[in-house]
Amino acid sequence: MLRVLVQVLLADLRARPLPAISTIIGIACGLALVVAVEGAGSAAKDRFGRVHEQLSGRATHQLTAQERLTPDDFARVMSRPEVQAATPLITGLLPLTLAGRGGTFEDIVQVLGVDPFTIGDFLPTVQLTSPGGGTGSFTRFLVEPRTVVLPEAWARAQGLDVGDSMQLIASSRPVELEVVHLLPSSPVDAERPLALVDLATADELLGRGGRLDRIDLQLHEDADAESFALPGQIIERPRSRGERGAKLFAAFRINLLALSSLALLVGAGLAWGASQFNVIRRAPLLSRLRCLGTSRRALLQAVLSELALMGLVGSVIGVILGWLLAQVLVDHFAGTIRMLYGELRVSSVPFRPGTALLQVLGGMSVTLLSGALPAWEAATTPPRLVGLRSRAERLLARRVPILVVLSTVFVLLGLVAWAWPSRRIEPVFAAAGCFLAAAATLLPALMHVALPALRRQLERRGFFLPALATGTMSQGLSRTGPAAATLSAALAMALALLVMLASFKTEVMNWLDSVLQADVFVASAVEDRVPEEVIAIARSLPGLEDVEILRSHDAVFRDRLVVVFGVDGREVTTARSRSLEQGNWDEAWAGFLAGEVILSQPFATRFELGLGDELTLHESHPPQRVVGVVQDYALDRGYALMSAAAYLERFGDTGIDNLALTFTERAPGHSQEMATVLRQSLAKAPNGPFLLQVEDRATLREGARAAFDQTFVITKALELIAAGLALVGIANTLIALGLERRHELAVLRAIGSSSRQLLGLFCLEGLLLSTLAALAAIPLGLVLAALMIEEVHPRSFGWTFPWSWPIVSVVALLLAALAAGAIAAIVPGLRFGKTSLAAAFEEQS
To answer: Which residue intervals of 342-476 are DSSP H helices?
Structure first.
């Protein structure tokens, strides 16, 4: 029996495939976005962790320190009986310029300084013997200075062979290394080309001053790992270090998943609308089947089987499209991560059959849940009432109090999730989901009250066509309410993103204006330092007013590595120009000059520190008092800022990170001119050439603006797709309403209404639907914006920023939504605009 019923329904579906196509498109598009974002995000995260683990090799633990480690530390850990193996490492990134190619930057190379006697225990593929089995390569690598070992595949691609030279930029100068050996396979699938050098060469290139970056260890299972770390040192498993790094961009991925899930919910709304559409269109067929003795259970199973089939097709298409989209999206995802957190290259997203199967099952479940209620109503309705609009509307009218109660419950749950005492981001998204559900349940109830009143007012004032459109919306509330709620959710998210991005961008640009007080900025490439000689070259520039020097160092605080900046300059204008979140500048500045510390807001949030608290960054020095907390978006993990005197006292001269030059001349274009002059001076310097990054203020600001826009372009794309799917839902709703009132439309045609007038009627209905959705989206969007600004960003990145109101953009968004609603009505308007009375009654018979 079930098989026969399913065949009957599928035959009807083949005759009129529009509802099935709508459902399949909605589920496919929504699921594709979720699959793409999840796939790209997982690939980036896995890539991050995998490369980190590969670089760690077979190490069970890693020892690091704020002052870096000494050879004595290596000797100390080697003497412990719990140590099976240990190897010292120096690692960093340096720019590559291949000899004979004009000295331009070709790539960034990961330099790994190793001990050739011990590295094989951790990276077995690093064998330095020659192909014939001799030890020539090993001897040269060990004895000769400035020799390098490269992976063969990368070296061949660059035209390098044993005996050739390659150039790295170290201390802002080109340093030539001789290739003495090629590894048949790379020790790790690294993000950057890997160059293996001995420890002495790495120390020279990276300026470590005889210290090590870390010591990799293989410990017995019962070893007390914590006992290996002295004060100021950290020992941890390689996986935990990789996981900590991966958490840096987890919040970005969660944000995109939340937005793509909205598109899936909108797709579910399309499936719900298509199910109702089928119930209405098939009213005669369903009535006949019931009259022929089909049980409610059998009919329900048949309708759900049909839904499952559509969900299966849509989910399979969605997973395939999502995987293909992920191949494109992953590059943008990795590019965003590079801008936010550092180097990451992901070439592709692997296809995982097990995950794909779960995603298909999830898509089918969403389809079944979306269409279950219309299917249940169709199966349990007496034969003579199947598809009657009056019964559905009476049911909805009786459920209005229930909808109000549900909406209240969702609001209360949302407030509880919002106020939940946790720094995790999941409760915030739970709150957003509750508020969306509250709006979806409340909007039909409000429309039930407001639309009849609006219709009466329009009739009194003689606006009969708008009154007719309003009456149609009111009489078909069981269809129009969910359609308006779906579009309202998409518009609310779009509005929230618009407000959040405008607020964030305005604040970031204002912050950049305050931070970029100098005219020209000089920085080293990657992890290199600016040579001291550059300061003298900069001071020789005409019209120079001040040189601000920035140094940085990693320190250990509460068993975590943190960044400390030391600033030196006559006025230190960059530091004083930043917005102070806690304290006042007079007291903060006095304390800063006296050796106290100023924290960035993310640092203070991360460690729950505030004005007056104490910070101990060096065990041999007294704690420093927090005299201020500044607003800053430079690092999401934050930093501690101290004067140059306090910094040098605690950490010594760790080298110069960058310089900020201020000139007396403020004419337009002068900073660009001075930047050009400085580049030329650095290229012609007696001890040079110095290859440094020299940028003027305007160039840096525009680059930051472009990076900001690039970071959030994907969010805008996802939001547009969700809104587009919601508008398709409006078109489906109007088609369903047109089928329900086909006879009414035929009568209007019979009494003289033109096709153009009926088209106008449908456009008015679409405009009314989108208007109601836009009105509901305004308060909901502001609530979602508050969640993003007040909770998501502080919990994810430690940033807070004031609200900005992009009135023009918001108005443009809402007007575009109204216009789109009217445009979405064109298809059903054209379809039913030529309905004739004879055809309508012929269909009824």
So the answer is: 353-380, 389-418, 426-460, 464-475
Report the SS3 class of residue 617: coil
Chain centre to alpha carbon of residue 648? 38
Residue ranges of E strands in 456-543: 520-523
Show the tokens assigned to 281: 């269109």
**Nearest residue to 71 via CA among 10, 127, 113:** 113
Q: Residue 699 contacts by C-beta under 8 Å, 6 or more apart in sequence?
A: 672, 675
Angle between helices 296-341 and 353-380 (to 10 degrees): 140
Specify the length of the chain in residues. Answer: 845
Whether the CB-CB separation of 57 and 123 falls below 8 Å is answered with yes
Strands (DSSP E) along 56-115, which ranges? 61-65, 83-97, 107-114
> 629 and 600 in contact (C-beta within 8 Å)?
yes
Q: Which residues contact 534 (CB under 8 A, 6 or more apart)?
A: 172, 522, 656, 659, 682, 690, 692
Within 10 A of 681 (CB to CB), how many other CB atoms are there?
Answer: 18
pLDDT in tens, 117-153: 888 777 766 665 544 444 567 778 878 888 998 888 8
Q: What is the CA radius of gyration of the chain?
A: 33
> What is the mean predicted confidence (pLDDT) over 489-496?
81
Using an 8 Å Cβ cutoff, are 804 and 507 in contact?
yes
Among 247, 277, 766, 688, CA closest to 473: 766
The one-letter amino acid at 586? D
Asked if 784 and 492 count as a contact pair (C-beta separation under 8 A), the reply is yes
Element (H, E) at 597: strand 597-600
58 vs 126: CA distance, rounded Å: 13
Instruction: Indicate the Cα dihedral angle 491, 497, 503, 506, nearest 10°.
Output: -110
Q: 3-class DSSP state for residue 696?
A: strand
Whole-model pTM?
Answer: 0.67
**Cα-Cα-Cα-Cα dihedral of 616, 619, 620, 626, to 10°?**
0
The torsion angles phi and psi of 596, rounded to 5 degrees, stand at -85, 180
- Cis geometry, peptide bond prior to residue 623 (ω within 30 degrees of 0): no
Question: Is 656 in contact with 644 (CB distance < 8 Å)?
Answer: no
Contacts of residue 5, defined as CB under 8 A and 6 or more positions apart, other chains included, come to 289, 294, 298, 299, 301, 302
**Tokens linked to 695:** 């940028």
Distance in angstroms (rounded) separating the CA atoms of residues 752 and 202: 89
Helices 250-281 + 353-380 axis angle, to 10:
30
pLDDT tens digits, 431-473 = 888 898 898 889 888 988 888 888 889 888 888 888 888 887 8
Bridge-based pairing of strands 147-151 and 173-183 is: parallel
Q: Where do runs of H (alpha helix) occur along 57-147?
A: 71-78, 136-143
CA neighbours within 13 Å on the CB side: how many for 515? 16
Residues 485, 444 contacting (CB under 8 angstroms): yes
